[in-house]
Amino acid sequence: MIDVIVAGGGPTGMMLASELRLHGVHALVLERDVEPPGVVRALGLHARSVEVMDQRGLLERFLAHGQQYPVGGFFAGISKPSPDWLDTAHAYVLGIPQPTTDRLLTEHATEVGAEIRRGCELVGLSQDDHGVTVELADGTRLRSRYLVGCDGGRSTVRKLLGVGFPGEPSRVETLLGEMEVAESPETVAAVVAEVRETQLRFGAGPLGDGVYRVVVPAEGVTEDRSVPPTLEEFRQRLRAFAGTDFGVHSPRWLSRFGDATRLAERYRVGRVLLAGDAAHIHPPTGGQGLNLGIQDAFNLGWKLAAEVNGWAPAGLLDTYHTERHPVAADVLDNTRAQMELLSTEPGPRSVRRLVSDLMDFEEVNRYLIEKITALGVRYDLGEGHELLGRRMRDIGLKRGRLYELMRGGRGLLLDQTGRLSVAGWDGRVDHVVDGSEELDVPAVLLRPDGHVAWAGDDQQELLTHLPKWFGANVT
């Protein structure tokens, strides 16, 4: 029997499969498409996802293919400088096209031993107390202990489970594509600058060699956004907004997206779970979608591995829903708010000016950037130290960097007292006796995803928290 089947080979699925493999879990990724898609929907990684890549030793690969940008200007495109200080060692956005991110995560999943099968479409599933049976389009049946649907906004897994997907339907639609442009770069830039004074959902940015990434509001909302627009549709909409179609030709790919916001009612039904776009969809404002999915996988991976490996404490797997569902709900709220601020109507434009004025206050600017980058996420782990539930940024230690010590996917007790012990949890929690000028608490217990599960200096208090996250003492 397979340990975990992951339906969907996008960034969420590949990240999850890699996290499972860190713990020796047999992970099989089933991807419907034979070849990776070339559509560039996401353009970068925010600070929290950059931290994830660093913690798993992948950041250098991503930096080699990306470009670092300031984090200002990401909330509804309101241009403000980056906040003076953010709680991260990576206070930048890493510009990198999604196909490159997909490739790098797939390579990593392959390296750590995940099994990947392309051209395999899941069409049926059933589950019992012992596992899940999956049916593929070619009639093949597979059996696994768990199944995770990472199969996108139109998730087959979610539909087969009968999980509700309530929310708001699309009210506006946007065309997106890459194509060659006949007009000079100077002309394109001048026209785009003029149009964007009133229409912020319009743009044409150069990618090199005469190719542009073009975004323009569609005429209406189609019933099936899986059907790509035509080049003529782009030309018509460009002429409607800019008075010219820039002589666009030779498209690389064409796509469309709406502004629907929907959130799965449940992230888990028995032995089947949902992650990424299968669990939530929202407008792309702020560039949060791909990042949200990667962070779902990072939260779920170690918990699901603990279940498979038999040491998970009661209720651990259910914390995936209780922690990540509110995070997604907040993203849906802020993306919908941003869409309102992109409207051309007088009321929203007045609100946009007010929000822009408020963002001149450093605290407001930082608050909104922390929403976009997920640096503000704090899980509700009960009362305690102010660090409880927050994710630790990478800090310098006498023996190196914190994230370098967490690459094995285990928990970590960072102990500045030298008096504490994790005896009985040695295989699940690394004990590092070291000091840092950046840490003003005697010790912190970190989960495998880097979130603080406990902070203090009392051994008996520590012993009440270790079983909650790392199971029973095995001595």
Automatic annotation (TrEMBL):
Keyword Magnesium: no
SUPFAM superfamilies: FAD/NAD(P)-binding domain
Any one GO molecular function term: oxidoreductase activity, acting on paired donors, with incorporation or reduction of molecular oxygen, NAD(P)H as one donor, and incorporation of one atom of oxygen
Named cofactor requirement(s): FAD
Superkingdom of source: Bacteria
Keywords: FAD, Flavoprotein, Monooxygenase, Oxidoreductase
Domain FAD-binding: start-end pairs: 2-335
Any Pfam family hit: Rng_hyd_C
UniProt-listed PANTHER family: BINDING MONOOXYGENASE, PUTATIVE (JCVI)-RELATED, TRK SYSTEM POTASSIUM UPTAKE PROTEIN
Protein name: Rifampin monooxygenase
Provenance organism: Halostreptopolyspora alba
